[in-house]
Amino acid sequence: MYTWVNGADPKFQAQLQKCLQETSASPTQASASSQRFRDNEELRYSLRSLEAFAPWFRMVHVVTNGQVPQWLDTLHDRVSIVTHDMIFPNKSDLPTFNSTAIELHLHKIPNLSTKFLYFNDDCFLGQATSRNAFVTTAGGQYFYFQPIPLHSNMNEGLVHDRAYAYTQALVEKLWSRRHPRLLPAHAPQLYDRDVIASLEKMTHDEFRETSSHKFRSGNDLVLRVLYSFFILEHPEQRNMHEAKLLKNPRDYSFVALGSHSWRMRHMFWKIQTLRPRFFCINDDLGDVPADHKTLHYLRTFLRSYFPHPSSFEMSI
Q1: Per-residue pLDDT tens over the stretch 190-229
Q2: Can you say how many angstroms the Cα of residue 141 is from the centroid of all Cα atoms in its chain?
Q3: Ordered structural domains, the chain, with CATH
């Protein structure tokens, strides 16, 4: 399953500007800036990685605001386009520009498997990956973490950091347990649809509040934080599951796009050489033209790493 948006679409831009004007509390620059919605065709190459390295998957659900990638074969029997209005029960929450709110409703996708993998479109598989990378021998699941302490101050930091802290505080309220936690990795995530539905009932007010936020907010409920620690700290479930720290660059690489083109070239070369199991390329470049050197290097890298079209791409 993927979430996707094309921020260059004129209709999307018009909706965004209208919503910004109507929002009483102006969103932070980080939550509504152009790179949050820029389409670098990551979805095309992430699908190539999925088909090449995890051919055991069954169905691809692409969650959008109604847009469809021009290159995507929507008639493919393993592709489903899911619009936000199909999963948001309260239509007044739409349109939304808040990925955190969207993620809280993914379990409502029609005909969704009980267990499903969720990819942001900037997440990729870098090598052959079996189900065993996500499911333990005890029937539980693996949770992947970066060696970065989870932000714990709800009053300071970037909007997503404050949302991490807000969610962690809720976890501590659920389990009456406070201790240091690490940041869940920005990698493909396995979810149980029924567990998310249970969490929605347990934290109904917080789910509802986040769903109503049209832009990212410091008091957003972050699904991957809530889900990971709810299960790992659940007294009846935690022995089934296992946390894994992604500190080996052959297991995981995270690249934040920046303006230093020479550094970006080195980072892409490193991924190409190491071929990690998972990697994420996060667009943190800011408002730059489409021909910026970093974006050129990104496109060149993706074409080189995933040169073969997937079956989901329409023939030219």
Answers
A1: 999 999 999 999 999 999 999 999 999 999 999 999 999 9
A2: 18
A3: 2-305 (3.90.550)
